[in-house]
Write a structure and sequence with these properties.
By secondary structure, the protein is an alpha/beta fold. It is built from twelve helices and nine strands. The chain has a seven-stranded mixed β-sheet with strand order 4-3-2-5-6-9-7, with helices on both faces. The chain has a two-stranded antiparallel sheet with strand order 1-8. The longest helix has 15 residues. The chain is elongated, with a radius of gyration of 22 Å. The protein starts with 7 loop residues before the first helix and ends with a helix. Bound molecules: S-adenosylmethionine.
Length: 292
């Protein structure tokens, strides 16, 4: 077994060997604690039959743990300066491919088809760049990729919102969007001290396991997401007021909204944050004929 990259001493050695300076704008906070990395890979449930996708390998701290515990790793790194460093730090591992690309621009499905032939268990595992956490997770889920799930480090506050249940302050359209596709669990909170440099916010690891089918069947997914977003436009407003101010001609169609709420069994004075995904599904289907 090779010496871990993720120790303070080894990380400092690598950074100084290459004269690397962190770019805050790219969310570069590298992990320097091998125990945390072991925990992440355990929560991800990897084996040699698993192919892992990593976003932002940095200098390879997590990548080498993925290389040791899974069959193959493909890692997307946007920062060109890190590519020669990764060639060096990951040279002991022959099952890693680094792609110098912005994950938000990448054709991940094509890469899965080319790189993961013979693997039917695919997991996304990463310590995400915090400035783009939500767009990355939504992209990976909405593209309908053949993955088992996503196990990632992110800002604790975003993890709270993703895994929130109805009736809590953190519950909102992000909780619904992600829980529509996955079972979401916050599996670990992480102190700032395990990063170099230390971020300003608290961190957590979240595990998203893709559902076989959504928790509610709706006529139109697009319309369901429009309804959930509209319902949280102003958190202190009632569901009726949010929908009538957000939907096209909602003010004129207030009676129709009231009828739909009643058909879905939802009091018009309730707030969006009290509605379950199932209630949003019923409401979306009841509104659909009048707004499409
Ligand atoms: N995995 C490493 C670790 O845990 O030490 C580094 C994690 S660091 C929080 C985030 C990494 O994502 C950085 O290496 C950064 O350059 C990279 N990154 C930022 N934006 C990216 C994007 N849009 N696509 C791919 N990589 C990105």
């Amino acid at each position: 077994m090779h010496k871990d990259i993720a120790t303070p001493i080894r990380t400092k050695e690598i950074l100084s060997k290459y004269g690397f300076s962190f770019k805050k704008s790219l969310g570069q906070n590298f992990l320097i604690d091998p125990n945390i990395l072991r925990n992440i890979t355990e929560y991800a449930g990897l084996s040699e039959k698993t192919a892992a996708i990593e976003i932002g390998p940095g200098i390879g701290a997590l990548t080498e743990h993925l290389a040791r515990t899974s069959g193959k790793v493909v890692a997307f790194e946007i920062d060109q300066r890190l590519i020669p460093i990764l060639d060096d730090t990951l040279s002991p591992y022959n099952n890693v491919k680094i792609i110098n690309e912005d994950i938000l621009e990448a054709d991940v499905e094509a890469i899965i088809n080319n790189e993961f032939v013979g693997f039917d268990d695919i997991m996304v595992v990463a310590n995400l760049p915090y400035y783009v956490t939500t767009p990355i997770i939504l992209k990976l889920l909405m593209e309908g990729l053949p993955i088992r799930g996503i196990c990632v480090m992110l800002q604790k506050e975003v993890g709270d919102r993703i895994s929130a249940q109805p009736g809590t302050k953190a519950y909102g359209s992000l909780s619904i969007a992600i829980q529509y596709y996955t079972k979401a669990e916050m599996v670990m909170t992480v102190p700032k001290t395990v990063f170099m440099p230390q971020p300003n916010v608290d961190s957590a690891v979240i595990r998203l396991t893709k559902r076989e089918k959504p928790p509610v069947e709706v006529i139109s997914e697009d319309f369901f997401f429009i309804i959930t977003r509209s319902s949280f436009a102003q958190r202190r407003k009632t569901i009726l007021n949010n929908l009538s101010s957000q939907l096209p001609q909602g003010k004129e169609k207030k009676d129709m909204i009231l009828e739909a709420l009643s058909a879905a069994g939802i009091e018009p004075t309730r707030r969006g944050e009290t509605l379950s995904i199932q209630e949003f599904g019923r409401l979306s289907d009841a509104l659909y004929p009048n707004f499409n």
